[in-house]
Amino acid sequence: MSRKISMKQAINEALDLEMSRDPTVILMGEDIVGGTGAPGEKDAWGGVLGVTKGLYGKHGDRLMDTPLSESAYIGAAIGAATCGLRPVAELMFIDFMGVCFDQIFNQAAKFRYMFGGKAETPVVIRGMVGAGFRAAAQHSQMLTPIFTHVPGLKVVCPSNAYDAKGLLIQSIRDNDPVIFCEHKALYGFEMDVPRESYAIPFGEANVLRDGDDVTLVSYGLTVHRAMAAAEILAQEKIEAEVIDLRTLSPIDRDTIIDSVERTGRLVVIDEAHPRCNIATDISAHVCQHAFGALKAGVQMVTAPHTPVPFSPVLEDLYIPSAEAIAAAARRTMGITAADQTVAA
Amino acid sequence: MLNERIKPIVMPKWGLSMSEGKVTGWLKEPGSPISIGDELLEVETDKITNVVEAGESGILRRVLGEPGNIYPVKTLIAVVADPDVPEDDIDAFIASYAAPSGDEDEEDEDAAPRYLFTETAVGTIRYARRGEGAARVLLIHGFGGDLDNWLFNIDALAENATVYALDLPGHGQSTKSLPEASLKGLAAATRAFMEAVSIDKAHLVGHSMGGAVAMTLALEAPDSVASLSLICPAGLGQEINGNYIDGFVSAASRRELKPVVENLFADPGLVSRQMIDDLLKYKRLDGVNDTLRALASAMFDDGTQQDVLAGSIKDTDIPRLVVWGELDRVIPVAHASALDSAARVEVIPNAGHMVQMEASGKVNALLKEQIGRKA
C-alpha cells in the first residue's frame, strides 16, 4: 500500500524499517535524538531538521547523540561497521566532511582493498547537500564529486521520496561504505511511497521522461529543474529525455549512452562546482564512447566556480535554473537566442 | 428530448490512476456509420495504448479530439448521432456538454472504483469490485501480474454482473508471503478470498497461471464455480517458456526486464516505460522475489509445467471457454485444443499472451457470452 509522504518522512521510514528488521543497525550523530532529558521532552529534535524524530522512542539506545566531533564519531561508526554493526552516521551538513575526511577516504574506503577482501565496512554516512536553503557557504555545498573521486565509496543522491526510501534501505544493506546525500531543499517534496520495505539497486538511473531530441542528465534537486526545462522545451516542440542518475558511484553510463545514441544531443546538469564534477565526468565519457552519435557539442549547466552566496538573490542565481537548462538544450539544437527573438 | 439520440464519445478511464489520455489517431472518418463494437480511435496513456470501441451505434457526426492532443478523462472527443438529427442540435449538444470540472473530480472520488482490501485466512488481499449484476465473476491474474491486468475488461464485464478482481498473494498489493507457494496454495488463497467477501459461486476467469488456479479451484470445489474462462492458461500442457519465467524473476533493472516483458505482447511497442517502472516497483518490495521464485520452482521448474489438469477438467461438467492469443510466446497456443469438444475454443489472431489487453474487445465479447450462458 502506498500513500503520499515527504522525502524527509521516507528517510525516517527507511531507518525505522531497517532498525526493526536488523538489530545490528544503529544510528549516530549530532542531535539525532536531540534534547534527551530536557523537561517534558525525551525526543525533542530528532536531528537538526527532524529527520530522525520519533526513532528514539521506538529504538532507544540504538540511537546515539554524539559530541560535536565528526572525526571521533565518524571514525567510531566506521570501526563499528568493521566489527559487525551496520551504523548509519549522520554528518548533518556534508560540508563538515572536512573534519573527518581521513576516516572516510583513507580508512573506510580502503579496508576491503587493503585487507585482501576480508574486511567489510557496511557504514552509511548521511549528510545534507545543496543550496537554496539560505544556509550560507559552509552549509550549502554539493560536494558529490569529491566522494565519487574515491574508489571504495558508493555515492547516492536521490531526487524524490520514493527513491530516497529504497536507496537508503539498499545503502544500509550494502556491505561497503555509502555516502548518502540528501538535498535539503527536497525534504518537503511529497510523492506516493509504499509502506513496505523495498530496495532500489545501485547503478540504475531512472528515466523520468521520454524524448527523441535531446537528453538531459542530472541528479538531486536539479532533476526537477531539468523536468521543468523539458516542459518549456515541449512548448517549442523539442522533446527532451530526462535521466535521473540516482547513484553517482556506481554510475549508470549505459542508460546515458543508449539515450544519446538515440537523441544525438546531451545536456548534463550538476549543482556542483564546474571543474571536475559529475557533469564533466559524464561529458567526457560520452565524448569518448559515443562521439559518433553526437550531433552537437555536449552542453554542461552547473553552479559557478564560487562559494555558495548568502545573498538570497545570488543564491537563487547560483543553482542551475530551468531556463538555463532549456537554453543549453536549444544550443544543442542549433537554436540561438536570436532565433528565439525572431520567433517571438 | 433529442439529446437521447445524440451520444457522446468521451476519453475513457482505464484503471484507477488514469487521469488523461492522448488521442493518437482516429480509425473512423467523420460521417462514417458506426456499429457497437467498432474500433473508433486509439488512445495512449502513460501505461499503455489501446483502441476505444463504440458503445453506441449511429453516424460519427463530429470528431473533436485531435490526434496528438491530450485530454482529461471524460472529455467529449466525438459525437455519434442518428442521420436525421439536425446539425444545430449537435452543435448545441457540444456547446452545452459539461466538461469535467474540479468539483466533479471530488464527486468522482466517491463514485469512482477504488482498490479495496480484505483480511482473509492467508493475509491481506487487495481487490476491486465493479457492477451490481446478480452473476458473480472473479478475475484471476497470472504469474507476476496483478488486478490491473484486467483494466480493459473489468468495466465491460460489469455491465451485467458483479465483477471481482483480486491480487493473488505475493502479487500486487496483497500480502507478500504465501504459506504454501504452489498451485494448491494459490487456489486455497483464492477460496479464502471468496469466503472473505462472501462469494458462494462465481464465474472464474483466469489468465495464464490464474487459469490453472481457476481449474484447481474448480476441481477442489466444483459447487463454487459457475463456469471457467481460461485465457492463455497454464495447466493444459507441459510446455512453458522457461526463459520468460526465469527472466522475469531474476530481472532487477529496467534494462533486464523490458525484453522479458516484451514476450507478453504480440506488439512489443505496447511495453511502455511506465509499465516497466510499475513492475520494478512491485518486484523490489521485500518478499516478492522470494515468493515468485518459490512459485516458479513449484509450478514451472526447468521450463516444464508441473501441473497438467486438462484430463481432470474434462471429467467435470463445468462449462468452459478457452481463449488464446495466436502469437503467445509464453505458453504455446497448441494447448488450446487440450480440452475436449465440451470447451469452446477461440484463438485470436495478432495477439500474444496478454490477449485480454491486446484484443480486449473480442475477449470481452467472448467472456460476456460465456457468463451469460445458463450454467
Brief summary:
Chain A is of the alpha/beta class. Chain A has 13 helices and 14 strands.
Structure description:
- The complex is a heterodimer of chains A (344) and B (375).
- Chain A has 344 residues and is of the alpha/beta class.
- Chain A has 2 domains: 2-194, Thiamin diphosphate (ThDP)-binding fold, Pyr/PP domains (Rossmann fold), CATH 3.40.50.970; 206-343, Rossmann fold (3-Layer(aba) Sandwich).
- Helices cover 38% and strands 19% of the residues of chain A.
- Chain A has 13 helices and 14 strands.
- Chain A has a 7-stranded mixed sheet with strand order 3-2-4-5-7-6-12, with helices on both faces.
- In chain A, strand 10, helix 8 (222-235) and strand 11 (240-244) form a beta-alpha-beta unit.
- Chain B is α/β, with parallel strands linked by helices and 375 residues long.
- Chain B folds into 2 domains: 2-97, Beta Barrel (OB fold (Dihydrolipoamide Acetyltransferase, E2P)), CATH 2.40.50; 116-372, Rossmann fold (3-Layer(aba) Sandwich), CATH 3.40.50.1820.
- Chain B contains 12 helices and 16 strands.
- Chain B has helices spanning 87-96, 102-111, 154-157, 183-196, 209-220, 242-250, 254-261, 273-284, 288-299, 310-314, 355-358, 360-372, and strands spanning 6-10, 20-26, 33-34, 39-44, 49-53, 58-63, 70-72, 76-81, 116-120, 123-130, 136-140, 162-166, 202-207, 225-231, 320-325, 343-348.
- In chain B, the strands form 3 sheets. An 8-stranded mixed sheet of chain B has the order 9-10-12-11-13-14-15-16, with helices on both faces. Chain B has a 4-stranded antiparallel sheet with strand order 1-8-6-3, covered by helices on one side.
- In chain B, helix 4 (183-196) crosses helix 5 (209-220), helix 6 (242-250) packs antiparallel against helix 7 (254-261) and helix 7 (254-261) crosses helix 8 (273-284).
- Chain B starts with 5 loop residues before the first strand and ends with a helix.
- The A-B interface holds A 1, 162, 166, 194, 196-201, 204, 206-207, 210, 254-255 and B 117, 173, 176, 252-255, 273, 277, 281, 284-286.
